Amino acid sequence: MTSAQVSRLEQAVQELVDRRLKEAQKPFRLRVAGSVQDAEWLYIIVEPDRAGVHSEGYIDVARWVEGELAKGNPDDNVLLVPARPQD
């Protein structure tokens, strides 16, 4: 996957995350904090905008986003990885 493709996927993830969080009326935001690519998978790191938000609070959002991406392009192997915000 080229760096341009990775950038487009990161942007698509951010847009989908924003949409889903708004629909679910979650009291926090998630941001794409980066990505790591290996041979077949792209791991996109997402982190909440504040401390104290645990991944259990947004795993449903991550799964939904992964499903939406798979519908659009089943050949892209993308996983969202939760991270803690930097202090």
Description:
- By secondary structure, the protein is of the alpha+beta class.
- The chain has one domain (3-82): 2-Layer Sandwich (GMP Synthetase, Chain A, domain 3).
- The chain has two helices and three strands.
- The chain has helices at residues 3-24, 59-72, and strands at 30-37, 42-48, 78-82.
- A three-stranded mixed β-sheet has the order 1-2-3, covered by helices on one side.
- Helix 2 links the parallel strand 2 (42-48) and strand 3 (78-82).
- Helix 1 crosses helix 2 (59-72).
- The longest helix is centred in the first third of the chain and has 22 residues, at 3-24.
- The chain is globular and about 35 Å long.
- The N and C termini lie far apart (32 Å).
What does the secondary structure layout of this molecule look like, with pairings?
Layout lengths: L2 H22 L5 E8 L4 E7 L10 H14 L5 E5 L5
Parallel strand pairs: 2-3
Antiparallel strand pairs: 1-2
Helix pairs in contact: 1-2
